Amino acid sequence: MTTSTRGAKVPAVLVLEDGRIFRGRAYGAVGETFGEAVFSTGMTGYQETLTDPSYHRQVVVMTAPHVGNTGVNDEDPESGRIWVSGYVVRDPARVHSNWRAQRSLDEELANQGVVGISGVDTRALTRHLRERGAMRVGIFSGNALPDEGTMLAEVRQSSEMKGANLSAEVATKETYVVPAIGTKKFTVAAVDLGIKGMTPHRMAERGIEVHVLPATATVEDVYAVNPDGVFFSNGPGDPATADHPVSVMQAVLERKTPLFGICFGNQILGRALGFGTYKLKYGHRGINQPVQDRTTGKVEVTAHNHGFAVDAPLDKVSETPYGRAEVSHVCLNDQVVEGLQLLDQPAFSVQYHPEAAAGPHDAAYLFDRFVTLMEAERA
Ligand SMILES: NC(=O)CC[C@H](N)C(=O)O
Q1: Catalytic positions (predicted)?
Q2: pTM attached to this predicted model
């Protein structure tokens, strides 16, 4: 059990681009940071949230009121570092206690230079974002802060999420291989647009050797690994900017290689098929979102982290250059497209996170579906 009072007495201010201001105390590193203000409704899994590369350039507000209780360990991160650009909590744990804990959350944020703020009325902030939409934000902490007008001007000069092309900033620069666990059955080329560590692990558990390729990988790079299937990962930024992975995916669809995409990968499949993408008002982030599989009618409780979505018709099968396609999954909160599948070739994707980490495992069957497509191709 460790106690920490780091930053507890240093003032901090959160300034939204529309001029609303919340005052609190420094949490984690002291300094200033900018990003898109978004909220996550996950009650658990803060380490996985912080280290998900899809949160690059986002300031995450936790709706769970008490954060940090179980400290930080070196097993749960989804990547090699924290990616959120800022962190907002109401009541940080002063005492953490868990058999796996190695240090406190505010120590970890400080070590990694992540500026946060605590003591914020996160319920009021979340309601504000829900009503006005996700927007730019700045967190400023320290004993001598700029005046409000200066802070607001800095927030309004910071970059927007719409139009941001960020995959190359978070993805691996070099290809690496995640070996199959047990007998190797298949090889998959996984295009890393900001991949979470649990995703190749879920494939490895099913006998897949995963070659994780940089976001800049070409069609030749993909086929150089002689893949049984091709995967496109989650990742940060605006899918409207992802022209390169869209063209690589179109080449994969041409060849009818089994294809699976998660989150950003679903948006890329949407674009590859000719659908548009758009920015949601405030997005879906958390581990408690109800999604219906429209093929089976079953409802899954699922993990989400997306601010954009695919604009595809829910009520009809669409003709695309790669055959017929339909919306396979839909979010029951707001009818947003949560999955796509092709009817004439082995390709599908989901907007949410079947790998969980954090979150329920209801959607793990989608990895089995990918295996089934690869088996059918081989038969
Ligand atoms: N987790 C993801 O892949 C997110 C995809 C995209 N950046 C979005 O916000 O919608």
Answers
A1: 263, 353, 355
A2: 0.97
